[in-house]
Structures are given as structure tokens and as C-alpha cells.
Amino acid sequence: LGLALYASSLCAASGAAFLYHDYCVIGAGPSGLQAAYFLQQANRDYIVFERSHAPGSFFALYPRHRKLISINKQYTGKSNSEFNLRHDWNSLLSHDRRLLFRRYSRDFFPDADVMVRYLEDFASLLKLRVQYNTAIVHVTLERDEQAWNGHYFLLTDQDRQNYNCSSLLVATGTWVPNVVNFPGSEYVEGYETVSINPEDFAGQTVLILGRGNSAFETAENILGVTNFIHMVSRSRVRLSWATHYVGDLRAINNGLLDTYQLKSLDGLLEGDLEDLAIVKDKKGKLHITLRFYLENRNTSAGIDSITLPQDELDNFATRAPYDRVIRCLGWKFDFSIYNRSLRMMPGKGNKKKYPQIKPSYESRGTRGLFVLGTASHSVDFRKSAGGFIHGFRYTTRAVHRLLENRHHGVPWPSTVYPITQLTNSIIKRVNEASGLYQMFSVLADIILLRENATAFEYLEEYPVGVLAELEMQTGRKAPNGLFVVIMEYGRNFSGADKDVFYYNRAVGEAQHAWQSNFLHPVIYYYKHLPTEREMRLRPPDWPLPRPDAVHHIVEDFLTDWTAPNAHILPLRRFLENCLSTDLRNFFAESCFLFAFTRQKLPPFCRQGYVRMQGLVGSEGLRRHAVEAGLLEDYTLIDFSGDKALDSYKGSQDQLLRDHTIPVRPLQHLVNSKDE
């Protein structure tokens, strides 16, 4: 009996050793909580692991000086909630109106502590399943042909508790500081630990390594108390208003540019940090030299025995010694917890701080492993907003929709409309959709045409990088061609060296819409779904392959694309040319006339008037149509008396000469079944 009890206890312990969930999410930052929200709304089995005691632990420390650079616009002049999200860069997506960030702060650039409180409320009010104080320290694969992806993900936490998952969503962000090693780098202070009290820098000379927002944020904090600040980096400064990339230097932090260009001692330098070396003298001052000066020399022998650049070039830029050197080089993804079996590889070039993923946000090395949030920014690095809340809240939703179709047979959400609503549907989306607006050139609306172009199916915010896989990824079919609606900047308008304030920088005429520079809608038309080969061979910097036809809606100063002549009419004519059909709307009187004079009725008449649908007319509406030239001015006839008969005969003769057909008032045509 004792042996039996012991064996059963072992089995129970073995069973408890692996806790299973369909979905495991690592990280309870903004993207992890956003993924949890969608999984919970779909009633999926999931768990979120967070190493800290609360969500959003990154924001508890960063940015160090506590001011976010994500805008929080309180007023837009509009009540449309979807449109207002275009100018709310902090809110996550949910059905709960209490969880809009503007209810937490009125500051245009909010405090980071408010973000921490917001994320705590988001997790608690929505009752998301987050397991705190759980640090995942190792992730590996467990092969199983019965699993969704041919394997399970085996996760181990700091207490050696194991978890099995069918699908793994990595939302840890990039939090490992970038460090450059060179002789003397031990004297460098990190952004993550340096003092944020300006008084600690009073009367000091400071060198900052880096040129991003963290570097300029640090400089801005001490600008008024230091002797001078020098900033050195490998690349030139990139201004966000020139590159149209929100991750580049923002105006709120660029005070050092003023003091540099207005010759107030501060300055910017370019150079490879790996070529530098730092030597400390007896007074504790830090001298900048070059690595090759220290080759085959003992740096501990003293500064007097070391050749400095100013010994050969007496006006060397950094010849003055520094009191402090601060490293502000950003962060990178933590690859250390992933077993080699997952093949989580860093990207190449300037994307090496991110893991390699596909445009679908799935790992290139392992099926079923998706990267969300900031760590997924390699898909649109320096192009769009995928590394920031106002961008990845939409890409996270796209990943969820892909998973719903793949694992649960739930097709990508879509709506079917009659073809007569095509122009209106596009105009509505380009004027209010936030996902298209924030994730320009990355997410697009897809319009799938039905047979004979009598109707269309509308899919919102699909990743264009996997357009060739649309049928497989969405569960929708595209046999009859499609339109792709996307937002783009002008081809040659963005760049670190561009003058974006030059005279005549904007286009105002519809015929020149293809030359638009600022963000504007572009509609691509394909007779057939592009292939993977066409996607690979697309022109450089094009989000899509060359289409059968393309239309640019001219840029608008108010980003309001509702002008009848400049925006709507050119779009409608483009759609009509692609479909070889008439997309105009007609009064019932005109449809009645077409029924007698044309072999084929326009779609609006076929789908509306013939089915006894459409606008009910009135005399005032008819008069307006006549004055606008939309209807012929047929005189109403009084059939009582001889004079009326003569008038009727005269009118009949006139109609015969004009080859027109008399009709009765609009309200009779619409309301009378017999007629």
C-alpha cells in the first residue's frame, strides 16, 4: 500500500510539473496586455507571465526623466472615437471607454508614472490573466506531431516550474542596454543608472555617447547647469519631422541643437564609438583618445606615457577633458532565454537588436512563435510606428486575427457590401481609420471583388507584407481581383537630409496627386492576387508589387479627404475605370429613364430602384436636382379642361422633337407599385 501511494504521489507530482495553456504570453507590457485582451475576448486559454509585481515594469524606470514623447491630444474637434485614436498614442484598444488615456492625464506629453497606473488599471479592470513575479528563464521546444505547430513550447520560470504552450507570444520588448566595449569603457556611466538630479552635474563637462531620444533627453535635463555637453555617435542626427519616423529625435528633446548651432559651447560629433578610448588622469578627468594610440601600450602606466590626438593635432575637437561620460545607446532584445532549438536569431545591420521575424510577425525559425510590440519593429524599422503603442496595438490585433484563422477556423472579419458602396466605403475608412493612419505602408484595407463586380468584401488592416498569403491567412477568397487601400508618404520626401519645409512642398490639384508628399491614401488595383515572387521582386521602397492600376488621393492640409471634386470624384472615376462600370448614384426618375433607353442599367439602379429601394423624392429635392443639371425640367401637366388638353398636345409634340420620354413626379415613381 505504501509503494502504491508513493507511486501515485509521483504521478501527481509529474502531472503538476507541466502546466498547459493554448497560448503563453511572455511580458505584461503594453503589447502583452493588448494580446491578452484579444485572447480573452475570444475566450481562449491563455496566460501572461510577468517577471515584476505589476504590469509595465519598463515604464516604472524608463524614460529616466519621466516624460513620455507619445502625444496625448485631448481635443480634435471631432467626436469619432476611431478618428481620435489617430492622435492618442498611449491608449490600448478595448471596449471599455474608461480605458482611454486622456482620462488619466491631460498633459500633451504625459508622465511615465501615469502610464504605469494606466497599464495596472487595464489589466485589473478587464480581469486579464496575468501571473506576476514569474520570470521565464528558459524556453525550448518539445516535439509532438499532435501539437498545433508540430511542437509544444516548454517554458521554465525562476522556481523551475514548467509550462507547456501550443503557441508562444513574445512581448518582452527591448530592455537590455546596448553597450559598446572599448579601452576605458569602465569609466562610462549608463543611462539606466546615471543620476537624474541636474545639481549633480553643476559646473561639469559631459560627453554623451549616442544620438537618440534618450541621449537628448539626458542632455536636456542638464543643459542649464553644465560647462558644456558634447555628443558623439556613429550617425548624423535624424530629426523626426524630416524622417517622419516617431523614433527619431523629437522636438521636445532637441534643445542641444539650438545651443550647438547658436554657438553656445555645446556640440555634436560623428565617429565610430568602437574606435574610441578613454584615459583617466590623476585628477579623475577623462580624456578621449583613439584606440590605435593605445595599441601595445600599458594604459595603467599613466596618461603622461600615452599619446593623445591633440599631441599631433592641436585643435582636436575633444581635446578638453571631461568630468563624466554617459552611455545612451538604447536597448536590444534579450536572446539569452531561448534555446538554440527555437532558432531565434538577431537581424542584420541596424536591425540586429531585434529578432528575425516574417511580415506576419511570426519567427523565421520557429512556427507558432510570434513576436509582438517593440521587439517586432524589424518589420517596419524607421518606416512606420510598429515599435510604439500607437502602432503595435494594431499589429497585435492583426496577429490575433491570423491566429484565430489558423487555429480556430475563424476567418478574418469582413463585411460584404453592394458595389455601389465602394466609393463611400473607401472614403469613410481613409478619413477615420486609425490603424491605416498610424501603420502607414504596413497595414492596409483589402477589398475583395465578387464575381462580375456586383459586390465586394471589405477586410480591415491586413499586413501587406503577407498579401500573397491572403487566402491562407484570412480564410477569404480572392478569385476576382482586389483593391488595396493604404496610406503613404511621398517617395522622396522623408530622410535625415531632406528639407521638408521647402517652398511649394504640398500638392493641391487632383491631377498632380501622385506627387503628393505628405501622408495620403493610395489605392492599388490587382486583377489577380500578387504572388510571393512578385512580392519579393517589388520595386525598392514600395510596400506592394507594381499594380494593374494605382490611384493617389491628393494630400490634404486638414487630412480630410471629403472634397467632392478634389478627392471623391477622381477616386470614383478610377474605380469605374478598373471595374468598367458606372458607380454613380441616381434619382429614381433617372433610373426610370435608363430602363427605357439603355440595355444595361447602372448598378445603383439595378440594386436600388429596380428593387424598389432608394431615396423618396420631394418637390424641393427635384427642384434642386433640376437646378444642378442632374434631371431634365419636365413641366407638370394639369389634365383638366380644353386648355390643358392643348397644352398636353403641345408638350407631346415638343417631347417627340426632343426624343425624350415624359415622366411623372419623383414621389409617384418611388411610391407607386403599379407604375
UniProtKB/TrEMBL annotation:
One of its GO terms (biological process) is ERAD pathway. GO terms for cellular component: endoplasmic reticulum lumen. Pfam families: Pyr_redox_3 (PF13738). InterPro entries: Auxin_biosynth/cation_transpt, FAD/NAD-bd_sf. GO terms for molecular function: flavin adenine dinucleotide binding; monooxygenase activity. Keywords: Endoplasmic reticulum, FAD, Flavoprotein, Glycoprotein, Oxidoreductase, Signal. The keyword Magnesium does not apply. It comes from the Eukaryota. Its cofactor is FAD. The keyword Signal applies. Interacts with SEL1L. May interact with OS9 and DNAJC10. Interacts with TXNDC16. Belongs to the FOXRED2 family. Probable flavoprotein which may function in endoplasmic reticulum associated degradation (ERAD). May bind non-native proteins in the endoplasmic reticulum and target them to the ubiquitination machinery for subsequent degradation. This is FAD-dependent oxidoreductase domain-containing protein 2. It comes from Charadrius vociferus.
